[in-house]
Amino acid sequence: MDLPALGNCVTSLSCIITQSTSGLIIGMLLFLVAAGVSLIFGVLKVVNFAHGSFYMLGAYLTLTVYGVTGSFLLAVIAAALGVGVFGLLFERLIISRVYGSQVLMQLLVCYGVILILDDLVKIIWGAEFRSLGMPDAFLKPPLLLGGGMVPVYYLFLIVLTLIIAVLLGLAITKTRLGKIVRAVAINPGMASALGLNTGLVYAGVFLLGGVLAGLAGALAAPVRSIVSGMGLSVVVESFIVTVIGGMGSVAGALVGSLLIGLVRSFGTIGFPLFTEGLMFLLMAVVLVLKPSGLFGREN
Amino acid sequence: MSKGSGARRTRRNFIKTGVALTATAVAGFPFVSRAQNKPIRIGMPTIQSGRAAMVGSSSRNGCMMEIEKFNAAGGLNGRMIELIARDTKGKPEEAARLSRELVNSDGCEILFDSESSAGAFAIHEVAKDLGVVVMHMNTETSSLTADPKLRVPTAFRASRQGIHDSIAAGSYAAKIAKDKGLKRWISCSPDYAYGRDSTALFLEYLKHFYPEVEVVGEVWPKLYQPDYTDALTKILQIKPQAMYSCLWGGDLTAFVDQSTIYNLFTQMESFTINVADYTILTAIKNLPKGLHSSNRYLSTFPKTEANAKWAADYRAKFNEYPITWSWENATGTKFILEGIKKAETTEAKKLSNAIRGMKIDSPFGIDGTVTMREEDQTLVNYAIGWGQTIPKDPFMPDVTAVDWKVIYDLETAWKKKNNYI
Predict the structure, then answer these.
(1) How many angstroms away from the CA of B204 is the closest CA of chain A?
(2) How far apart are CA A85 and CA A214, in angstroms?
(3) Pairwise pLDDT comparison (A7 vs A255), residue with the higher score
(4) Does B307 map to a domain?
(5) Does B50 touch chain A (CB under 8 A)?
(6) Most C-beta atoms within 10 A of its C-beta, which of A173, B58, B148, B364?
(7) Is residue B231 part of a domain?
(8) Distance, in angstroms, between A286 CA and closest chain B CA?
(9) Smallest Cβ distance to B257: which of A141, A142, A223?
(10) CB B304 within 8 Å of CB B368
(11) Chain A 16-55, residues with CB within 8 Å of chain B CB atoms
(12) Is the pLDDT of residue B92 over 50?
């Protein structure tokens, strides 16, 4: 524990800016994965443990498309769409067969898919870790804001993810499509009786979750090691975010992700040996005070 | 009469001898021939799946470089080497179970331990129990061979050792630090046994050679942590003059990639001990100029024809760069094969006696040879050097060799301090 260092940091503008942006960076990528996990659970009541593998696929697709075309933009779009389609197929061909089954059965199916995808990735791309490298457009010195340092790529990542978060929130709360999704999430039987195609909604949610996870993998590719099994740590943190924010809530996923990001960035200064523990502590506190999560519906 | 009787005896003896020879020819020679042709099986518990799968592939490749030469030369009186690799998945309990199985069920006469340190200790115990020869190929944990309580007469180590690397790193870094006046240091290493031990020893020897050094911060990211932003921003806040890191593998490439966009390496001297291995050097797309690193494996150090040829042969055979586990496994295999040739047997005691204290020609030796030191059955005199990176091949053009006399002296002091001698 290094409380004096934490005290010095929170009284220094440059430290506050640097650590806050650090928290935003960690939180934003996490949000893209956690939003999908949260939506899928909220609508389908399925704990999609394989969501980390979607993220991994996004990173590998980016690596390949970027390698072939040299265009990072094209690679990001291809990864998001490619993983979206994969999510759709995953829902139609695999996970839809265990709807209504025990959670253990769903977890088992997801775990099987994780193992298969991890091995497939090794067969196709090799067992060694890979690195995309920073696209030329972002190879610039970091910006100095109020004495704090913010890399250009991270600024792009934060802005893009915030735009996605806002659009996603508006789509869920303000559009007819969003109302349908919410209706199916609250009472699928009634929604079906009223003529809504719940199967289509389920598939659409997986498609959306896949797009978001693929996008997260694509945006992470320039700064993280691309390796078989890379989705595991992300999916664990995503579940923490989902528990903190509340199942099925996009706003909850955003707030939960930011909280985890900030806890990690400031925790590293004040509690260097207990940063991971702080995340679980935060989750435990939320579970005790509000078991449904900060933005979750009380049942 | 007596002559006739003697002649009959002679004839009988002749017939008996003929029958005996025929019987031997029919039954005995094929038996001897079968025994001669029986392959010498070597069991290799190693990691072949998961994030560390490249440990297994590069280790096996390193071994095969030597085994194929041995077999092509006729083996041991016609007995060829057969390498049987098994996947431990990086789990020590699996490493122990598979080692027993390889010896007891698959008939392996020797074990090649190409596992991580945790697995190596488990295999070490099995070898002790079963009395077979084991060559530890990858573990860098010094105590395995330094601690006399752990010593097993049939166990050897052909890999670099943590204590050797730490002394070499401390000696090199202190020289740079003195020249440039680098007194404020920070460390950023993985939060597990290797990271903690390596960092503590490095700082100890850095201060030994340059006592003015002050450690102003420590950062301990978790193993396989995907994001280092929090660690990097903390380092930037502390503003050290120099940083030591023993991150490795994919963690190191992610750390370098993320550090680059913060311009971290232009703000301090960085001593990243594990960068100079081709896995890392080729994986990082924008390799920064000027990172200080030890040679894990470089085809240009030692700068000899033998080393360059070995690397070229390896690349031609496996279509990939050799890495640190490749040369270590090739070296361990060569010791075993030279030992078998010298002892003319695979019997554990005779083979161990042959290997103990053996000196072999090697492209990885600082003077063209490496030695299996008699007193602790571990590899010495291999090439250790430090240099600075450039973004393109050869990646580290100038490597300064570290004097083994310095390493020997401080290693002895370290052993005394730990009551190993």
Answers:
(1) 21
(2) 10
(3) A255
(4) no
(5) yes
(6) B58
(7) yes
(8) 23
(9) A223
(10) yes
(11) 18-19, 22, 25-26, 29
(12) yes
Same structural domain for residues B406 and B281? yes
Q: Do B227 and A269 touch (CB under 8 A)?
A: no
In-domain check, residue B308 = no
Task: Give the domain extent around A221.
Answer: 16-289
Residues B176 and B155 in one domain: no
CA distances to A102, B107, B113, B130 from B155, in Å: 51, 19, 10, 12
pLDDT of residue B172: 97
Contact assignment for B230 to A22 by CB distance below 8 Å: yes
Taking only Cα atoms into account, the Rg of chain B, rounded to an integer number of angstroms, comes to 26
What's the mean per-residue pLDDT of chain B?
91
Q: Name the band, by pLDDT with cuts 50, 70 and 90, for residue A71.
A: very high
Contacts of A11 in chain B (CB under 8 A): none
Q: Are B121 and B92 in contact (CB under 8 A)?
A: yes
Give residue A267's pLDDT.
87
Is the domain of B157 the same as that of B172?
Answer: no
A138 close contact with B: CB closer than 8 A: yes
Provide the number of structural domains found in chain B: 3
Residue to mutate among A224, A234, A236, with most B CBs inside 10 A, is: A224
Instruction: For residues A72 and A222, give the distance between their C-alpha atoms in angstroms, rounded to a whole number.
Output: 10
Q: Which residues of B touch A272 (CB under 8 A)?
A: 218-220, 234
Q: Within 13 Å, how many C-alpha atoms sit on residue A95's CB side?
A: 30
Whole-prediction pTM? 0.83
Contact residues for B320 (Cβ-Cβ < 8 A; gap 6+)? B61
User: Is position A175 within any domain?
Assistant: yes
Shared-domain flag, residues B25 and B79: no
For range A26-36, the mean pLDDT: 91
pLDDT at B20: 52
**Set of chain A residues whose Cβ sits within 8 Å of the Cβ of B258:** 223-224
Q: Do A127 and B250 touch (CB under 8 A)?
A: no
Asked if the C-beta of B249 comes within 8 angstroms of chain A's C-beta atoms, the answer is yes
* Chain B 192-221, residues with CB within 8 Å of chain A CB atoms: 218-220
**Token match 């199985």: residue?**
B101
pLDDT for res A127: 78
Whether B2 shows a pLDDT value over 60: the answer reads no
CB A119 within 8 A of CB A242: no
Q: Best mutation site among B220, B233, B323, B392 for testing chain A: the one with the most A CBs within 10 Å?
A: B233
- Using a pLDDT cut of 90, give the percent of chain A over it: 49
State which residues form the domain around B238: 163-302+385-417
CATH for A106: 1.10.3470
The count of structural domains within chain A is 1
Predicted confidence band of residue A128 (pLDDT cuts 50, 70, 90): confident
- Confidence bin at B32 (pLDDT 50/70/90): very low
pLDDT at residue B26, rounded to an integer = 46
Q: Which pLDDT score is estimated for A8? A: 79
Task: Give the pairing of strands B269-272 and B242-245.
Answer: parallel
Q: Based on the fold, state whether residues B373 and B266 are members of the same structural domain.
A: no
Cα distances (Å, whole numbers) of residue A290 to A257, A282, A286: 17, 12, 5
Quick check: A281 and A263 in contact, CB under 8 A? no
Residue B60 lies in a domain: yes
Chain A nearest C-alpha distance from B89 (Å): 13
- CB contacts of B226 in chain A (<8 Å) are 220, 224-225, 230, 233-234
